[in-house]
Predict the 3D structure of the following.
Amino acid sequence: MKTLVTGGGGFLGRYIVEQLLARGDDVTVFARGNYPELESIGAKLVQGDICHSAAVLHACEGKEVVFHVAAYPGVWGTWDDFYQPNVIGTQNVVAACQEQGVPYLVYTSSPSVIFDNQSHEGNNESLPYPLFYENYYSCTKALAEQVVINANGKSGLSTVTLRPHLIWGPRDSQLLPRLLAKAKAERLIQIGDGTNKVDLTYVEDAAHAHLLAADALISSKGVAGSVYFISQDEPIMLWPWIKNLLVQLDLPPIKRQIPMRLARAVGGMMEFGYYLLRLPGEPPMTRFLASALAKSHYYDISRAKQELGYRPQFTMSESLQRTVEYLKNKEYIL
């Protein structure tokens, strides 16, 4: 199978590339950077910007399946920072697939597209988009998701959208490094009462779900146009889980706790100050981040199990053990 992975040099994308190569697929990576380590294991590399339609069109030539993983993540930045890669980039991928006759597209979305600052406890894919968003990432990912869903069945293109929740594991470049850096500096503060439960998704299982989605599309299992939540299917109490992780890594414990309402108020003031003064970097707290750290958000993955055949290959305990072993070998943790 001839495949293209946009963002194949990133955290999730790299695992997808490795799993595709391991089963014998032909893999091309589309990314802005140079990744000789991926070429050394058999992947082809096409360098380019997802926002440039001609580059995306060239990369999609002759492909049977495109995995669109590339995105601009984070909780802070300008509208254009997020809109260009997340929405325009996705429009470019969809248009390129249709023009080049690519039959199958698997899109990496996020549960944040339906986060409405309320607790979600076992909700399924019928949960609607909220009326407003408190961060640009969630909003632009929702717009991009709708582009992909609306493209299904047009110009010979079949699509599937996956919403893996809070991807983590070895080689994580976003979630864990930020969390552990704050803990090491003793600036990590518990938001809320610590009873909120969340889903996590081990990166190898998130990648495996993408391969299953592509296989289901190809075998015409009736999944085209569908959206699926993906996780380890083992919701954890977030703050006790974080505290246990810090213990295992010999990092300072969390010593402070503040209510969610206070955190949201502080986050709102910080957002205003950073915008008004055009401060570099990102605020330590935002309204969205405060809600995400204090509210429950875990989802029913029954649909992915039934229609994609998805089953987590690793338990949360196994995932934690593998990740801790990896992190203990990283100098910035010690």
About this structure: The first strand starts at residue 2 and ends at 6. The chain has a mean pLDDT of 95.
